[in-house]
Design goal:
heterodimer, A: Ribosomal Protein S5, domain 2, 6-stranded mixed β-sheet, 4-stranded antiparallel β-sheet, 12 strands, B: alpha+beta, Ribosomal Protein S5, domain 2, 4 helices, globular, disordered N terminus, DNA binding (chain B), Ribosomal_Su5_D2-typ_SF (chain B), nucleus (chain B), Exosome complex component RRP46 (chain B)
Chain lengths: ~280, ~220
């Protein structure tokens, strides 16, 4: 009976739960799904992380390559994020060139890297004007069940913290870089931006960490990104029904507690991988 | 051409021309200082079967840059404009049909996203599409000294440490869309929202005046 009701009237089905301050998967309105993190999952990448937020699974691999610095910024390297939503992760994505959602997510991640100062691109410079690192951060969704942006940002941050770049010596005469793959050093991560996403139901009820189904039924979604100093790096609301300043404030407060949880999780996982060495 | 001289220095001079293209169902050109955008809307029209939605209209937004082909940045902006229009339009009145909005950048001198939104709203109005509310785009920049500049130019945008664009709705003056760059405190955010809400009053007044002027001739 319940299954039939869910298929025929999905919105009414969700409303009947929301009226009792809970959700079909048993969570309360302000609860996130269980978040699990695994770092160093891809041994061939320079840094990697696998994140699961409920069923949503995202993997991030970082590949470092040499590049020529841009002429206008000779002392800087590059960080190039790319979010891929293959048809593997959900039936809503088609094969072929990246769709609007994948492109918007890539742009969002690129904006966060720039706004939050997660790391200084000056530190990716090897020889000023001659050689620098470019970090390709490929983020791939393996299972799409809503709240993509939160998962992507956790994966990116954990992978950057996991990344270790080989030492490079640059001889001035021959201008050939020599790479010492044995001697690797970690990156200097300055800020830890963490995202928290919300969905708005019926113009008034805000729920935290929406699933794919909740996302498609909701009238608006909001993503708040905070760093550890409680500064906002992004307040991304790509449209949908309008919200008052007070409601936005509530979302920001919830995002603050979420930041603490995720920061603790990343630290814990990194600590646990360090011990066996 | 109608030009509204802003009485306070917060917004650059802005103006709009509606119904300037003959083929689209609605068109407008919106100018904020030196930033200028041309918008055209088609609809309700037939929709591709793959994009058909059974209980409402499909909205499509295309942003054309001045030079070159649309890139990832344009796609992200398209998403912002599209979802704002979707929320404002009463798309349930036209199920299984499509609305297409084309935004052509004529000149970019800062606050481009807010100019897109304003041009889009004027074009939708000109097309006579059913809307639940109007919307206005306002861009705020916070400069190095912590001052808030509304409707910044490209130079002011470059020198700013944070940049926020909001779409404000006309019924309750609440935030429909928000897109930010750079980092800022919660207090600064609330201040920028309050300023944008105030600035949106001017734009809504301009919408009202320009529509009144236009229809006073025909009636």
């Amino acid at each position: 009976m319940a299954a039939g009701f869910k298929t025929a009237e999905p919105l009414e089905y969700h409303r009947s739960f929301l009226a009792k301050n809970c959700r079909p998967d048993g969570r309360e309105l302000g609860d996130f799904r269980t978040t699990t993190l695994n770092i160093g999952s891809i041994s061939t990448a320079d840094g990697s992380a696998l994140v699961k937020v409920g069923n949503t699974t995202v993997i991030c691999g970082i590949k470092a390559e040499f590049a020529y610095p841009a002429v206008e910024s000779p002392g800087k390297g590059y960080i190039v994020p790319n979010v891929d939503l293959p048809p593997l992760c959900s039936s809503r994505f088609r094969p072929g060139p990246p769709g609007e959602q994948a492109q918007a997510a890539s742009q969002f991640i690129a904006d966060i890297i720039e706004s939050s100062d997660v790391m200084q691109t000056e530190e990716l410079c090897i020889v000023k004007g001659k050689l620098c690192w470019v970090l390709y951060c490929d983020i791939m969704c393996l299972d799409y069940d809503g709240n993509l942006l939160d998962a992507c940002l956790i994966a990116l941050l954990a992978a950057l913290k996991n990344a270790r770049l080989p030492k490079v010596t640059f001889s001035k005469d021959s201008e050939v870089p020599e790479v010492n793959l044995e001697n690797r050093t970690g990156l200097n991560i300055h800020k830890h931006p963490v995202a928290a996403s919300f969905a708005v139901f019926d113009d008034s009820i805000t729920i935290v960490d929406p699933t794919a189904e909740e996302e498609s039924l909701s009238t608006a979604t909001i993503t708040v990104v905070l760093d550890e100093e409680e500064r906002l790096c992004a307040l991304h609301k790509p449209g949908g029904t309008s919200l008052s300043g007070q409601k936005l404030q509530d979302c920001i407060s919830r995002a603050t507690t979420r930041h603490r949880e995720i920061h603790k999780l990343i630290d814990k996982v990194i600590q646990s991988t360090k011990t066996p060495e | 051409m109608e030009v509204c001289g802003s009485s306070s220095p917060t917004l650059r001079e802005f103006g709009c021309e509606q119904n300037l293209l003959s083929r689209p169902d609605g068109s407008s050109s919106f100018i904020q200082g030196d930033t200028s955008v041309l918008a055209a809307v088609y609809g309700p029209a037939e929709v591709k079967v793959s994009k058909e939605i059974y209980d409402r209209a499909t909205m499509e937004v295309v942003i054309q840059p001045k030079v070159g082909v649309p890139s990832v940045r344009e796609r992200a902006r398209e998403q912002c404009v599209r979802e704002t229009c979707e929320a404002a339009l009463l798309s349930k009145l036209h199920p299984r049909s499509s609305f297409t909005l084309v935004l052509q950048v004529v000149h970019d001198d800062g606050s481009l996203l807010s100019c897109f939104l304003n041009a889009a709203c004027m074009a939708l109005m000109d097309g006579g599409l059913p809307m639940g509310c109007l919307f206005a785009g306002v861009t705020c920049a916070i400069n190095g000294e912590g001052q808030i500049i509304t409707d910044p130019t490209a130079v002011q945008e470059k020198g700013s440490r944070a940049l926020m664009t909001f779409a404000i709705d006309s019924t309750e003056r609440r935030v429909m869309m928000s897109s930010t760059k750079g980092s800022f405190t919660v207090h600064e955010l609330q201040k920028c929202i309050a300023i944008s809400q105030k600035a949106s009053e001017k734009i809504f007044q301009f919408y009202r005046d320009s529509v009144r002027r236009r229809y006073s001739k025909t009636l």
